[in-house]
Amino acid sequence: MTTVLIVDDQPLQRFGFRMLLESQDDMTVVGEGGHGQDAVRMTSGLRPDVVLMDVRMPDMDGIEATRRIVASGSSARVLILTTFDLDEYAYAGLRAGASGFLIKDALPEELLSGIRAVATGDAVVAPRLTRRLLDTFAHQLPSGTGAEAASASADPAKHPLLSSLTDRELQILTVIGQGWTNTEIAARLHLAESTVKTHVGRILAKTGARDRVQAVILAYDTKLVRPS
């Protein structure tokens, strides 16, 4: 059973989500909140598997709430709801640690499959859309300072977060950052798809990335991949 916390400042929107989710045999709504402070407090107390998070809310928006939930070490996965696919809010949500985002006018089955995906540790953003988002808003990436930034710029593989990766893992992280799917990686690098999945799992474990989306962001942050 997947437990879900719904956070949206529109009561009618929350009601609609609750009706949809509770019509499913494998989902239950454990709570509802109207703003980001509710999200942080209720996530801590209720420990949901997934937080369905609106971004534009009063008092504390969904981006800051996501950042605080992730920083707390919570195992809850955040699924951001936004208005447009190439939206600065979607970008900011992923940067804050969300496991994906959905457009608010998504079909019911898309919302349900998205919740199921993030509950199992997957990410809900098409790889190429993640790449497009990061390319669009890459000017907002921190430039970094000091010797570490200079070293990473000269050789990203020497970045502390990447230093434990093998050459093959660095190669796969690079193409993940370029928007390749596991199927494409397997075909182009002549690997079994199961081997690719094993490599991706090791990359996430070694770097501490929560999911594939965060791995893409890591590839950008460490300059392993640069905006096109």
From TrEMBL:
| Domain Response regulatory residue range list | 3-119
Q: Which InterPro entries match?
A: CheY-like_superfamily (IPR011006), NreC/VraR/RcsB-like_REC (IPR058245), Sig_transdc_resp-reg_C-effctor (IPR016032), Sig_transdc_resp-reg_receiver (IPR001789), Tscrpt_reg_LuxR_C (IPR000792), WalR-like (IPR039420)
Keywords on record? DNA-binding, Phosphoprotein, Transcription, Transcription regulation
4-aspartylphosphate found at? 54
Segments forming domain HTH luxR-type? 158-223
Q: What is this protein called?
A: Response regulator transcription factor
